[in-house]
Specification:
139 residues
Length: 139
C-alpha cells in the first residue's frame, strides 16, 4: 500500500560556529513522503548572517526522517543560491543528504577541481543568503 504524508519543514541554517547570528526574512519548506521516499523543498532568505569566527559546514537541519543507512549513500537535489562566495574554479552548489543523516549539506563543484563541502567561510559575515531548493532521498 502506498502511503503519502505531507507537512511543513522547519529549517535552520547553522554551522559549528558558536558565534553565528541569523535573522530570516524567509524560512519555509515542506515535505512529502511517498512510501520510503522523501521529497523536501526549502526556501531560506536571511536579512542578517553574521559571525565573528568562521567555522564549520553550512547545513540545513529539520528534515523529517534520517536518510537510509547504506554504503556510500548520498542523495542530491537542486539549488538556487545567492550571497555565497565560491572559491576559484567552483561554479555549482548541490544540496546533499548523506547516509543516516537528517541534515542537508552543500557540495561545491566545478571543472578541474575536487568537490568540496561548503563552509561558513564561503559566506561573508554581514551578507544576506538565499537558499532555494529541493532534495529527494530514501529512508
Amino acid at each position: 500500500m502506498l502511503s503519502i504524508l505531507s507537512s511543513i519543514l522547519v529549517q535552520v541554517v547553522c554551522t559549528e560556529s558558536p558565534t553565528l547570528s541569523v535573522v530570516y526574512s524567509t524560512q519555509v519548506g515542506d515535505w512529502t513522503k511517498v512510501g520510503r521516499v522523501i521529497i523536501a523543498n526549502f526556501r531560506i532568505s536571511t536579512s542578517t548572517f553574521t559571525y565573528t569566527t568562521s567555522a564549520g559546514n553550512l547545513i540545513i537541519t529539520g528534515l523529517p526522517y534520517p536518510a537510509a543507512t547504506v554504503t556510500n549513500g548520498v542523495w542530491a537535489g537542486a539549488l538556487v543560491f545567492g550571497g555565497i562566495t565560491a572559491a576559484a574554479g567552483y561554479s555549482q552548489l548541490t544540496p546533499q543528504v548523506t547516509s543516516g543523516s537528517s541534515s542537508i549539506v552543500f557540495t561545491s563543484s566545478g571543472f578541474g577541481v575536487a568537490a568540496a563541502t561548503l563552509n561558513t567561510g564561503n559566506v561573508a559575515s554581514g551578507n544576506t543568503v538565499v537558499l532555494r531548493g529541493n532534495i529527494i532521498y530514501h529512508i
